[in-house]
Amino acid sequence: MASPQDRQDPYSLLEQCLSADRPALRRDLRRLPARPRSLADLPEALRLRIADSAARLIARANGLPKPDFPPDLPVNQRKDEIAEAIRKHQVVIVCGETGSGKTTQLPKICLALGRGVAGLIGHTQPRRIAARATASRIAQELKSELGSTVGYKIRFTDRIGPQSYIKLMTDGILLAETQGDPLLSAYDTLIIDEAHERSLNIDFLLGYLRQLLAKRPDMKLIVTSATLDAERFARHFGNGDTPAPVIEVSGRLFPIEMRYRPVERDEPKPVRPGEPPPRQDNRGPDRDLYDALVDAVDEAHRSGPGDVLVFLPGEREIREAAEALRKAHHAAGTEILPLFARQSAQDQARVFAPSKGRRVVLATNVAETSLTVPGIRYVVDTGLARLKRYSHRNKVEQLQIEKIAQSAARQRAGRCGRVSDGVCFRLYDEDDFNKRPAHTDPEILRSSLAGVILRMKSLKLGEVADFPFIDAPLPRMVADGYQLLAELGAVEELEGAAVMNLTPVGRELAKLPLDPKIGRMILAARDRGSLAEVLVIAAALSTQDVRERPPERQAAADQAHARFRGTEHEQKSEFLWFWNLWKAWEEVQRHETSSKQKAWCKTHFLSWLRLREWRDVYNQLHTLCAEHGWKENDQPASYEAIHKALLTGLMGHVGCKIEDASGPAAGSYLGARGIKFWPHPGSAIAKKAGKWIMGAELVDTSRLFARCLARIEPEWLEEVGEHLLKRQVSEPHWSKASGAVRAWERGTLYGLTVYPRRGVSYREIDPALCRELFIREGLVQGEIAEGPARGMAFLAHNRRLVAEIERLEHKSRRPDVLVDEELIYAFYDAKLPPEVLDLASFEAWRKRTEKAEPKALQLTRDQLMRHDAEGITTDRFPSSLEVLGQKLKLTYLHAPGESDDGVTLTVPLAMLNQVPANRCEWLVPGLLEEKVMALLKTVPQKHRHRLQPMAESAGAFMARFDGGDFDTDEPLIKMLQRFVEERVSLKLPMESFRPENLNPHCFMNFRVQDEHGRIIGQSRNLAELRAKYRDQVAARFQSARIVPAAETPAPKKGPAPEGRQSTPAAAAPASDKALAGFTGWTFGALPELLEVKVAGRDIVGFPALHDDGSSVSLRPYDTPEEAARVHRGGLARLFALELSAQVKAIEKLPGIRDLALQFINYGSEAELKAQLVTATLERCCLLEPLPGDADSFARRCQEAKPRITLVAQELMRLTGQLISEHATMSKRVAGLKTFPDVVADINAQVARLMPKNFLVALPYERIAQIPRYLKGVTVRIDKLRTSPARDAQLMAEWKALAQPFEREWLAKAKAGVTDPQLEDFRWMLEELRVGLFAQELKTPMPVSVKRLQKIWDSRPR
Questions:
Q1: How many other β-carbons are positioned within 10 Å of the β-carbon of residue 875?
Q2: Are the C-beta atoms of residues 290 and 320 closer than 8 Å to each other?
Q3: Which of 317, 392, 527, 944 gives a 20 to 30 Å CA spacing to 303?
């Protein structure tokens, strides 16, 4: 017969089971085919499970401990009220002062209510040390072993048994359990203690529990704290308009006195009644925090017995404070103990153990809440704490010391007054306290929300914006969290979706109870075969640095740490330092005892406790990987594999060095999103980090520093951060090499340029533009690579046609012959199908098309020409200009404004002086008519109107030009002057034409080319080019090789020339020795021209005898003028050699020594003799016509012999006269100090008349007139004193003529040009001086200013 229990509804029986079993049992019941009405309807296995769970529930109820409640604790005085509230309400908020006992008594009240039977009483604490200490205290009060009735679970430690009723844990542990147990079914009661801290975990838990309570009506929630904003929590957990009940527990065991002792003490404060006198302060107003701390501890010791609890921001400050206290001689009778979260349990136990002596406990804010350090009577509150704030702008965590809020200050004060009346010393003033915020900002408002978002996504809790946080995070904080997850590749925005969803990587990350960055590194290491190394490094990044660096032994510590840097390759990364240390530490652990391990750590300045914690973290990570079936790599991973895995979690911590940074910014790196950071000064690779680095963290202290650095390659960023890379494509262009349209792609990662310029295909981006550019630049402009172009017969055909028509355009200077490129583009566009986008697709189509129609893509001449280009013939536009038998290339270009616009003559450097300047003025027949018309338009109006219409006049000139009426060796303007005078019957001065008004293309452009084909100069001014390259041309001709042009008899004296042949074509080059060393005319007749080889080119040279001193040689020159000048000197030398006896006689003429004494101002006796010989031979032998062969030379020698002595004596007489006249004149000039202008003019005149070599520098006819010119100077001086005004007027008239002459003389001398007409005009100016200043001396011809001006104006130019 079935029992009544068997007939019960199975669903109702679940209430009698353990809460941990209920979700699974309910799920199995729902899976049954039909709803069961009783236990009898259940499968046997399921029925047994329900029975087993119910039995265990009964067993737990029977074993429920019976707590007792100390009546002296304030919370127990309201125990019944609290218990009633818990019984009636699902959520109760207990608000009480520190020391009221709520942390230990509330779990016991729940036990008394029967809670903890169906599930555990979960009791959260914000810190591990608080959870462990609170569990010990409750277990002690329940008189049980820790781990049985009361257990705790913190990171890496689980002391919970099956018989446990109360479970102490950190809020992070409870939050982690929500992943495996979303309903938190293991608990029937939860106590969230110290909720005022508002850590990220607490805020997330409170929001999560608010949603969970509706699904778990059996659960009770108690939220408690000493300084809680009760109203806000009551509203958060309220039901509609009804807030959750709030119970306030007031009162403390003992009162607390507040004493404000600010650090800055400018003057002593008055002593309060009953207060002991303060310690003498000799530090002055500039004392620091540690001075104030020492004073406060001193004051506490003077105030009475009891231990002191000092709150400091961090571990470094604890060490410094301990040192300050020891130096202040507190160490002798006082025990100084540190207390912080990362201490080992053994060290923390020392703080909580009873002590007989006086103690000073130096603690971080870990001692603010839940901890009761025994014996504390005094608290020293520095008012500071180290808070972590996340910068959403810089994406970095800033760990900075900040002032604590009022609630935290009250919590600190509440740590005393537990054993007797307490005293709290606040190292700041009361006004400062009152100005501080009431509560510390919730961590959710100052943290990255990436982990929260990831967990919410995995738990399907919806969006962060919709989650019931007490203080909802700002939208930018939520966006930042999503941004970090996107950086890790954990979320993606699907097209058309309003929210971001988890990626496969994100789903895997959500299963790992780790920081998302660390989890991402491990996933990447698994895929890249570097899991063994990255697990070690990730564990190191998750714990505090194991290195110790005591201030007094920093150098020794750095040296010890350097042993683990590894090989030179490994020294590029500080991450590998952890791996090398790990391997060394494993060896020590494997072979050494515990004491030796500690000694090893001390030797290497490593924290043994932190090494243990590092191993604990590693073991947890290793276990996690084993649970997922991930195997570690057997072979050592490469540097690249390890750092690519690490990079996946640190994409926002990369930086590129700012190369040109100087001053304060020197050594800085540009990081993600525009931030600037520096390698940490303590980094081993700070000064050799390289261009690209990544850091484990960015910390903002005095400046933004990157810690734990490694050198990376930018290519890794492209691979690892492919999902983050932003690609910007710009400048699409046709690429001749690739035969397709390419573009430049720039890749950036968070604003960092990963690669600045990379060629990419543009085909997929804009096919239409690719097709257009292919046709325009590839086919129309012919930009096809040489290889593919060889197979395109149509392209060569079309190019050839276009080039021919372009040449016609340049010659005719008409840009309208060739059709516009748009028409050619339209031709190809119509032919090509739309799918042709590049060369490859074009070739495939072309080969198919040309099989059927070979000329499908060939253009015709008619298609390319707009009209026929009439008159563009070879005669009118020749391709070359013949100069001395050489054809020089002519090229045409129509490009107004360009340097080579018009017609260009390419001239070899050696022939530069042989180009006929006059002939080049005539350009080519096709361009001459335009130039003639332009010149005609520049003539004066009275001539110009008679030439109208200009086109007819220019046509008439061209008709006569075509008829051969003009000599093209004459200047064009001279012929045009004659033509105009005949046509208009009026005289036209040559200067009436204004060639400077013509366009540049109306003048021949000369392009000078060296022997290697290089263009070395270009100008339209031939004289300028000749002056510029005069020395180079001369050098070419000096090294020229003469090729005999006709048969020449061998010389009678000296070595015979080699290779003389009958014709130049067959002639072998003559040697240099064959044409030099002549001391007589032994080389046959002098030819008019010579064929010479200059730099391998056959050109024409002009022969001349060159004076070699003791002999003469036959040499070629590039112009007949230069050849004639050199030839006279060489011929004079040959006469001197032939008439050597007569020359010696000249040197021994009587009176020559006396004359030499007078000549001393002009030169030595030897110089006088040399000049006499040269001048004599000039008068006797170098008469026109000059001898051209041996016979005429011999005749000239015979004719000169009897005259030489007479002429030499005449020259001696003339020289003496000149010197005497010059001396007389010089004495007269010396007395004209009052007329400096006249003196300067006379000295300039005499310097030109009598240079030091006047005997050879001037012709004899001119020398003979110099005495008269010097007498004229003397006459001028005589007249000057009587009429200085007349002299000045005459000098001004003379200078008006002389100045333009001197300018032209200097210009032609600079260009190396000799003008006989200018030479004649020079002596006319000397005659004009005689005519103006000494008319009585007479002149050979009539001269006047007016007559000479007319001669000057009418000279040919």
A1: 9
A2: yes
A3: 317
